[in-house]
From TrEMBL:
Cofactor: FAD
Source species of the chain: Coccomyxa subellipsoidea
Domain annotation RsdA/BaiN/AoA(So)-like Rossmann fold-like: ranges: 15-425
Protein name per Swiss-Prot or TrEMBL: Aminoacetone oxidase family FAD-binding enzyme
Keywords for the protein's UniProt record, in alphabetical order: FAD, Flavoprotein, Membrane, Transmembrane, Transmembrane helix
TM annotation in the entry: 12-33
InterPro entries (alphabetical): BaiN-like, BaiN-like_dom_sf, FAD/NAD-bd_sf, RsdA/BaiN/AoA(So)-like_dom, RsdA/BaiN/AoA(So)_Rossmann
Name of one Pfam family that matches: HI0933_like
Keyword Membrane part of the UniProt annotation: yes
Ranges where the RsdA/BaiN/AoA(So)-like insert domain occurs: 205-372
Claim: Flavoprotein is one of the keywords in the record: yes
């Protein structure tokens, strides 16, 4: 690659290099170019936006329909720093940008409060984003892996690439993502680069990843899904004291996989497990209420049903899938019993299995299947108004490399668009 000249020497428009051509990097490129900068995106894989292509089951859930920052995002950094970043661009304005400037028609999925492209095509999202960048003159260079950054005496930065070449710019945006889905090009190189230059990195862990564990009664329920599960996660200490407080995934989908569990309810709480396993802290307890119905509702059903009903048929009648009803009855030792025959202790045990089933897990699927990475560069080390590093002047950070991720529902792309915009706009301005 030919070295680029710094604007201070060449008197040209400020130059910005974006390392990483994912959702955050392309957004940063768009906004830096809009400010008149010469923008180059260095992407290590063969094409930009590969993760956009595989997202949301190739439909790409681009945004949520509503946001509550405290409820929907996870960070170990300061909540006020997080709020300050979100205050910079409302969901409504971000949606308008996707529609009007990127040219993406959006459709809602009301039951899940999500926005998707009306075409249901993640390829359209990626192509329109790339098209909007190239229309503004952004140069996208693929198969360009940034391995190191070094500061230049004049104030700019040099990127050293894997093939031994170098390129220089007035400012840099680091948008290299996290460690999740490494086959998409994300292996934590960005963390290593900025970590080596003085940033502290909050210990990372896979998030939104399936859990491994044994199905009820040791049966094989793979492929079975439920749609209104309440999953409760209590920290080990709170659970030991019998406290109810904890995190909850309410009325969302749950899937039995070949090796354990997945679906939004499990993914949204998985970070509590992965974090504890990575850090060797006490493991939280997960409890499932399979239909989201209360204990009192089940008690009333048991009282009202004819005494001659078999226990599994009562569970099936009220919506429990047959295979799960059979597994739960087997585990409670009531498979061949009629309702009238149940002793009080058996009823209580059954009620617990229906509404507070202790989900056994012994591991997780790791970064290979994690949708995002927890941990990363703490928000205290970036200026939340500009995303400029407080450690490395004229280096801006955005997207998944930062110590923030959201739950399932378009929250992670919202974070990528939001921080990409701030980083790109201000990377262009930081030279002035
Ligand atoms: C299967 C799956 C489905 C998902 N579905 C959704 C969804 O529907 N909605 C949602 O909101 N979120 C979803 N996500 C999460 C979302 O994809 C991420 O939050 C988002 O892509 C993060 O954007 P980013 O630009 O920060 O990182 P990435 O998209 O990971 O982009 C980083 C880019 O940097 C490149 N790179 C890395 N290191 C270097 C280097 N050293 N030099 C050059 N280039 C480098 C990588 O190749 C990559 O292209 C999903 C994730 C996965 C894995």
């Amino acid at each position: 690659m030919r070295p680029r000249f710094l604007s201070s020497v060449s008197k040209a428009a400020p130059s910005v290099i974006i390392t990483g051509g994912g959702a955050a990097g392309l957004t940063a490129a768009y906004f830096a170019a809009l400010q008149g900068s010469q923008v180059t995106v260095l992407e290590r894989t063969r094409e930009p936006g590969k993760k956009v292509l595989i997202s949301g089951g190739a439909r790409c859930n681009v945004l949520p329909m509503e946001v509550d920052v405290q409820r929907d995002f996870v960070t170990e950094s300061s909540p006020s720093a997080l709020r300050a970043i979100f205050a910079s661009w409302s969901l409504e304005d971000c949606k308008r940008w996707l529609e009007d400037d990127i040219g993406l028609a959006l459709a809602t999925e009301e039951e899940n409060m999500k926005y998707f492209p009306a075409s249901n095509s993640s390829r359209e999202v990626r192509d329109r984003l790339v098209g909007a960048c190239t229309n503004l003159g952004v140069r996208i260079q693929c198969k360009a892996s940034v391995e190191a950054l070094s500061s230049l005496p004049g104030g700019g930065w040099r990127c050293s690439l894997g093939d031994g070449s170098h390129c220089e710019a007035d400012s840099i945006v680091v948008a290299t993502g996290g460690l999740s889905f490494p086959k998409m090009g994300t292996d934590g190189t960005g963390h290593r680069i900025v970590g080596g230059l003085g940033h502290s990195i909050k210990p990372v862990y896979p998030a939104l990843t399936p859990l491994k564990g044994r199905h009820p009664a040791g049966s094989q329920l793979a492929g079975l899904s439920l749609y209104g599960v309440d999953l409760h996660c209590a920290a080990a200490a709170a659970a030991a004291k019998g406290k109810k407080k904890g995190q909850q995934a309410q009325r969302s989908a749950f899937l039995f996989t070949h090796r354990g569990y997945s679906g939004p309810s499990v993914l949204d709480l998985s970070h509590s497990v992965t974090m504890a396993l990575e850090r060797g802290t006490p493991l939280p307890r997960l409890k499932a209420n399979w239909l989201g119905d209360s204990r009192a509702e089940w008690e009333a059903r048991m009282v009202a049903c004819p005494g001659s009903s078999s226990v599994p048929s009562l569970l099936r009648k009220h919506g429990l899938p047959q295979r799960l009803a059979e597994a739960i009855c087997a585990e409670a030792g009531v498979s061949d019993r009629r309702m009238a025959e149940l002793r009080k202790t058996e009823r209580v045990a059954l009620l617990e299995k229906l509404t507070e089933y202790p989900l056994e897990y012994d591991g997780h699927e790791g970064y290979a299947k994690a949708e995002v990475t927890g941990g990363g560069v703490p928000l205290s080390e970036v200026d939340c108004r500009t995303m400029e590093s407080r450690v490395l002047p004229r280096v801006h950070l955005c997207g998944e490399i930062l110590d923030v991720f959201g739950r399932i529902g378009g929250f992670n792309f919202y974070w990528a668009w939001l921080t990409g915009r701030l980083a790109g706009m201000h990377a262009a301005q930081s030279v002035e």
